[in-house]
Amino acid sequence: MTICIQKELFDIEKIISNLRKNKPTIGAIVSFVGYVRDYNKDINTKKLKQMELEHYPGMTEKALIEIELNAKSRWALEDVFIIHRIGKLLPCDPIVAVVVASQHRKNAFAACEFIIDFLKTDAPFWKKEISDQGELWVQNRAEDNQKKASWNLGNE
Hints:
By secondary structure, this protein is an alpha+beta fold. Helix content is 33%, strand content 37%.
């Protein structure tokens, strides 16, 4: 299990290579990399110049660990790596990566999607978009909350 929150760029190939080392039980690795877009989907007339991400140290790591442990309780996983960037990011910059290793692809695909869905709603990151029309703090989107709810967690 690895959780990283950092300003620096990350190398997804290096992350996957390190995850795979000396682990012959791994049969599948699924990865997701999210990038900063150059527009706001909800207001497509805004041309994004940059995004600023903030977090609450300690609280954010705890939330990411909880998301990971929740995934591990649902699927047989060999390893998980979550990395999220903070600070000033430009369009096309990588912002987040989730890498999931398991013996079988079905578990890896499902867990990776689960983790990113919960990251979008439960991880305490604050995003400010700076566009050609000013600044805007990004709010949770209804579709992200609906996707999270679709995992049917009951009382959790």
